TrEMBL record:
This is aldehyde dehydrogenase (NAD(+)). Its EC number is 1.2.1.3. It comes from the Bacteria. The active site is at 259. Keywords: NAD, Oxidoreductase. Residues 28-485 form the Aldehyde dehydrogenase domain. InterPro entries: Ald_DH/histidinol_DH, Ald_DH_C, Ald_DH_CS_GLU, Ald_DH_N, Aldehyde_DH_dom, ALDH7A1-like. PANTHER family: ALPHA-AMINOADIPIC SEMIALDEHYDE DEHYDROGENASE.
C-alpha cells in the first residue's frame, strides 16, 4: 500500500514523464522529512557505469565546445522555459523531498529560472580583454575557452538550484555537466534532468550526455573528484566534505569551486530599525529550518538595544509556527533527518555547558517518530565559544552583546567560516565601516537585511573555510572556462619583450 506522500510523489514525477521504474525500483530508499515515510526507491550507478558516463560526457564536450556560445545560450533559454512550465511540479517535489515550505520550494525553482535568464545574456558576453603590448606591431589579447565536463556535487538543502547555478553557466561556457546530487534528494535531481532533456529535445541537435546525473554515495563523489577528465569540480556542502573533495581535486591539479559551511553573523547597531531587524532576523535564522548555508547563526546586538530586541525575539521564537508546511501555513518545517536533530541537541548541550541561556530547541511532535520537527532555539551567550564557532545545520541562533562596532566586527570575523554577514544600521559611518576593508571578511556583506536569500546576479560564495569559490552571477562564469593569453606579432621584425637581445 503506497503512502499518500509517495502517491503524491509518483503523480508529480509522472507528470514530468519520468518512467515509474526510475523511482520505484532501486536500492536507495528516499524518505520525506515531512513524515519520515518512504516516498521512492531509486537505482544507483555502479563505479563502472559512472566511469563510462564520464567518458560520454567528454564526447559531448568535443561537440558542444564547437557550438557558438549564443547558440548554446538558446539551450539554456529553453531550459528556463521548461523550468517555468514545470515550476509548480518541481517546487512541490522540493517540498516533499527536502521539507521546504511551498513558497520556498517555488522560490528555489525561481532561482533556477533567474540564473538561466542570466546565462542566456551571458552567452553573448564571454568577453576577453585587449591589452596594450609593449612591443611595436604587436597585439595582446585574452580569450576564454570551454574547459570540459564540470562535476557538480550538491547538498540536500538546495537540491536543485545549486545544480542550476553551475549548469546554466557551464552550458553556455561550452561545458557538459555531471551531477552527483545529495543522497537525500535524488528525486528532484531526476525531475530536473527530465526537464533538461525536454529542453534538449526541443533544441534539436544538442549532443547526447550534455547533462549526466550520477545517483550514488560517497564512492561516486570520490570517483568524480579523482577523474582527471573532469577539469572542474564544484562542490557545495559541509567544510568536512569540501576539504576532502578539494584535496583530492588539487592532487590532480584540477580546479575546484567550493561553497562550504557558513557561520553567518548580523550586527545590530544602536541606530537600527528594530521592526525591520526583527523580521529579517526571523527569516534568516528560522527560514528553511535553519538549513541554509547562509542561515543567520550569530546575532551581535549593541547593549543599548539588546533587551528591547531580544525580548521581542524570544517571543517570536516561542510562537512561530512549526509544522508540516504542506498542511498549513507553518513557517518552520522539519529538519532533514534524525542526524540533524541529534547534532542540534549536541550543540545545545554544549552551549548550555558554556553558560548559554536557551529559549526553545525542543522537539515538536508533529508527524510521529519518523520526522524531526523542532522549535527553533535562541541561545543567549556571554562569549563566543564552543558550538558558536561551528556551523550546526539547524535553527540555532546564538545572541551576544557588544559595546563598540570595532568589537562587533572583530567577533563577526573571529570564526573559521566566511560566507555571509550583515549589519542593521541607519548610520552611514557604521555601514561603510562594516563594508570597508576593515569590516566584514565574508564573501557576502549585506545592509539592513539578513545574510540569507541572495539574488543570483551577484557572485555567491565566501572566504576561509567556506572554500573561496564563487558561483552564480557577476563574473563567476570565469570559473568554468580556461583563459588563454594571445600575443600576436603582425610586424616583420621580432622585438623581444623586456628589451632582450638575441641576434643570431
Ligand atoms: C545554500 O544554502 O547552499 O542565499 C544556498 C540564499 C540562497 C542560496 C543558499 N539564495 O540563501
Amino acid at each position: 500500500m503506497m503512502s499518500s506522500l509517495s502517491s503524491q510523489t509518483s503523480a508529480l514525477l509522472a507528470s514530468l514523464d519520468i518512467p515509474e521504474g526510475y523511482y520505484t525500483q532501486g536500492t536507495r530508499v528516499v524518505t520525506s522529512p515531512l513524515t519520515g515515510e518512504e516516498i521512492a526507491r531509486v537505482a544507483e550507478v555502479t563505479s563502472q557505469d559512472a566511469t563510462t558516463r564520464i567518458g560520454a560526457s567528454v564526447t559531448a564536450f568535443q561537440a558542444w565546445r564547437q557550438v557558438p556560445a549564443p547558440r548554446r545560450g538558446e539551450l539554456v533559454r529553453l531550459l528556463g522555459e521548461e523550468l517555468r512550465a514545470g515550476k509548480k511540479t518541481l517546487g512541490q517535489l522540493v517540498s516533499l523531498e527536502a521539507g521546504k515550505s511551498p513558497s520556498e520550494g517555488l522560490g528555489e525553482v525561481q532561482e533556477m529560472i533567474d540564473i538561466c535568464d542570466f546565462a542566456v545574456g551571458l552567452s553573448r558576453q564571454l568577453y576577453g580583454l585587449t591589452i596594450p603590448s609593449e612591443r611595436p606591431d604587436h597585439r595582446l589579447t585574452e580569450q576564454w575557452h570551454p574547459m570540459g565536463p564540470i562535476g557538480i556535487i550538491s547538498a540536500f538543502n538546495f537540491p536543485v538550484a545549486v545544480w542550476c547555478w553551475n549548469a546554466a553557466l557551464a552550458l553556455v561556457c561550452g561545458d557538459p555537466v555531471i551531477w552527483k546530487p545529495s543522497e537525500k534528494t535524488p528525486l528532484t535531481a531526476l525531475a530536473t534532468q527530465a526537464l533538461f532533456l525536454r529542453a534538449a529535445a526541443r533544441f534539436g541537435d544538442a549532443p547526447a550526455d550534455l547533462s549526466t546525473v550520477l545517483i550514488g554515495g560517497r564512492a561516486i563523489g570520490e570517483l568524480l573528484a579523482d577523474d582527471a577528465r573532469v577539469p572542474v569540480i564544484s562542490a557545495t556542502g559541509s567544510t568536512r566534505m569540501g576539504r576532502w573533495v578539494g584535496e583530492r581535486v588539487a592532487r590532480r591539479f584540477g580546479r575546484s569551486i567550493l561553497e562550504l559551511g557558513g557561520n553567518n553573523a548580523s550586527i545590530v547597531t544602536p541606530s537600527a530599525d528594530l521592526d525591520l531587524t526583527l523580521r529579517a532576523v526571523a527569516f534568516s535564522a528560522m527560514g528553511t529550518a535553519g538549513q541554509r548555508c547562509t542561515t543567520l547563526r550569530r546575532l551581535l546586538v549593541h547593549s543599548s538595544v539588546y533587551d528591547q530586541l531580544v525580548s521581542k525575539l524570544v517571543n517570536v521564537y516561542r510562537t512561530i509556527s512549526v509544522s508540516n508546511p504542506l498542511e498549513g501555513n507553518a513557517l518552520v518545517g522539519p529538519l532533514i533527518d534524525e542526524a540533524a536533530f541529534t547534532a542540534m541537541q549536541t550543540s545545545l548541550e554544549a552551549a548550555r555547558a558554556a553558560g548559554g541561556t536557551i529559549h526553545g530547541g525542543e522537539r515538536e511532535n508533529v508527524n510521529g517518530a519518523g520526522s524531526f520537527y523542532v522549535r527553533p532555539a535562541l541561545v543567549e551567550m556571554t562569549s563566543q565559544t564552543g558550538p558558536v564557532l561551528e556551523e550546526t545545520f539547524a535553527p540555532i541562533l546564538y545572541v551576544m552583546k557588544y559595546d563598540t562596532l570595532a568589537d562587533a566586527i572583530a567577533l563577526q570575523n573571529d570564526v573559521p567560516q566566511g560566507l555571509s554577514s550583515s549589519i542593521f544600521s541607519t548610520d552611514i559611518r557604521d555601514i561603510e565601516l562594516f563594508l570597508s576593508s576593515r569590516g566584514s571578511d565574508c564573501g557576502i556583506a549585506n545592509v539592513n537585511m539578513g545574510p540569507s536569500g541572495a539574488e543570483i546576479g551577484g557572485a555567491f560564495g565566501g572566504e576561509k573555510e567556506t572554500g573561496g569559490g564563487r558561483e552564480s552571477g557577476s563574473d563567476a562564469w570565469k570559473g568554468y572556462m580556461r583563459r588563454q593569453t594571445n600575443a600576436i606579432n603582425y610586424g616583420r621584425t621580432l622585438p623581444l619583450a623586456q628589451g632582450v637581445k638575441f641576434d643570431i
